[in-house]
Amino acid sequence: MRGWLDNWIEMGSLRIALHVTAFIYILLTPFSTPKRVLETTSELFWGGVLPATTPLVIVVLLFDLLMCLALRGDSEPERRELLGRTAVIHVSLVAVLITLFLNSLSGVLF
Description:
By secondary structure, the protein is mainly alpha-helical. The chain is built from four helices and no strands. It is elongated, with a radius of gyration of 17 Å.
């Protein structure tokens, strides 16, 4: 258990913050209920803010994935392995977020 935690901490504070943010969105997105008319503050958060900001988190994850893949080519083997693990984590987080986001919007879109 200690090995994966050390590897995760080795990624850096900004990537850790990005992963934590994505994980929070993964936990909150299933409760998102987009509506056309938002009357209360809670409806505004769950139906407006959360569905509007989820694609932003996805785009930031994809930009960091692009940077990981670009930096991976010129790196030494240890750094290349770290960037490869980071890319796998990003792809899995993006896949889960897109699935949950489309599921939460399915009532409005379809």
